[in-house]
Amino acid sequence: MNVEEEVERLKQEIQRLGNIQPDGSYKVTFGVLFHDDRCANIFEALVGTLRAAKKRKVVAYDGELLLQGVHDNVEITLKATTPPQSSS
Fold first, then answer.
1. How far apart are CA 30 and CA 4, in angstroms?
2. Which parts of the sequence belong to the Costars domain (predicted)?
């Protein structure tokens, strides 16, 4: 799986585990993602995938490096995707 595919899978998992917000974004804590069995099986390096997604501005969270235990309560936000504008 390449980085782009992993970022897409990460988006799906955040939507599955997270809570939708009024603006259409989703929020989940790092601990929920890290301790989820399905995520553990999908992502060989969850922290690396999160960093790649953050670099691509797909997700947002405080800090650069998330560590299990220390950062379990850090909120990760999957940014809302805006639907394409129809030209009518």
1. 20
2. 1-79
